[in-house]
Each structure stands twice: as C-alpha cells, then as structure tokens.
Amino acid sequence: MILYCDGASRGNPGPSALGYVLQEDDGTILLEEGRVLPVGTNNQAEYQALVAGLEAARKNGVQELLVRADSELMIRQVIGRYRVKNAGLLPYFQRVQDLVKEFPRIRFEHVPRSMNADADRLANEALDRRGPDT
C-alpha cells in the first residue's frame, strides 16, 4: 500500500487542513480524506496528515506501507536525518513514532509536490469548504 499525505495552512499559522490518500500499488484508492484542522502551521498540518493516514492504514489492516509526502522536513525528521527542534511538532512526531511501530514494514519517501497532487487537492478542498469565517 502507498500512503500519500499533505497538509496545508493559509497564513502559517492560519486555517489549516489535511489530506491523505491510501491506495494499492496499482493505484486503486482504498480511501481518501480531506479534513479541516484548527489554526496551525503548515508543518503541524503536514504531521497531522501523516498521523491521520497512518491511523487509517492501521485500522484497515495494512501491514506493508510506503509513505510519500512532499514535506522534506517532515520526512527527514521521521527517518531520523533531522532532529525535531520545534516544540510544537514534537507531539505529532512522537505519535508518528508510536504508529510506525505498529507496521511490520514501513518506508518513507520524499516526493515532489507534483507526485502528491491528490493529497494536496484534498487538503485544499477542505480549506475551501471551511470558508473565510469558520
């Protein structure tokens, strides 16, 4: 299975949302979601998208997972190449680390934004539905 995830924030911090797509290797979509989040930063939204996608994969019994995201910072933090220095990201990072332990095989890959278009679209559609005053 492949998990594509993306977060978006307008204002950074500002209104934010997440999007993720969980799909089979052949491209068949198992599930997808775009969800409004509380006001936050883009990096917080990226992590929340990853957490939501990992939780969905776990609930659906996924054993082998390839995670693809266009947030180089998040991917490098998750694989241990960068330290998490921002205290606001630490709870999300720790949740990801707990979830990762529940998958027998999991890999993380940074991809260009163009390869993450569906997750990006879902996050932005959720922000659009939110409206300016909500």
Description of the structure:
With 134 residues, the chain is of the alpha/beta class. It has a single domain, classed as Ribonuclease H-like superfamily/Ribonuclease H (Nucleotidyltransferase, domain 5, 2-Layer Sandwich), CATH 3.30.420. Helices cover 37% and strands 31% of the residues. The protein has 4 helices and 5 strands, in the order βββαβααβα. It has helices at 42-59, 72-78, 90-100, 117-130, and strands at 2-9, 14-23, 29-40, 64-69, 105-110. A 5-stranded mixed β-sheet has the order 3-2-1-4-5. Helix 1 (42-59) packs parallel to helix 3 (90-100).
Count of DSSP H/I helices:
4
Stretches where pLDDT falls below 50 for ≥5 residues?
none
Looking at the structure, the CATH topology is Nucleotidyltransferase, domain 5
Mean pLDDT: 95
User: β content, as a range?
Assistant: 25-35%
Fourth-tier CATH superfamily name: Ribonuclease H-like superfamily/Ribonuclease H
Order of helices and strands: EEEHEHHEH
Could you tell me how far the N terminus lies from the C terminus, measured between alpha carbons in angstroms?
35 Å
Bulk shape: globular
Q: Number of DSSP strands?
A: 5
Based on CA atoms alone, the radius of gyration comes out at 14 Å
Would you tell me the structural class of the helices and strands? alpha/beta
User: What strand line-up does the widest sheet have?
Assistant: 3-2-1-4-5
Total individual domains: 1
Reading off the top of the CATH hierarchy, the class is best stated as: Alpha Beta
- What can be said about the biggest beta sheet? 5 strands, mixed
- Proper CATH architecture: 2-Layer Sandwich
Percent in helix: 25-40%
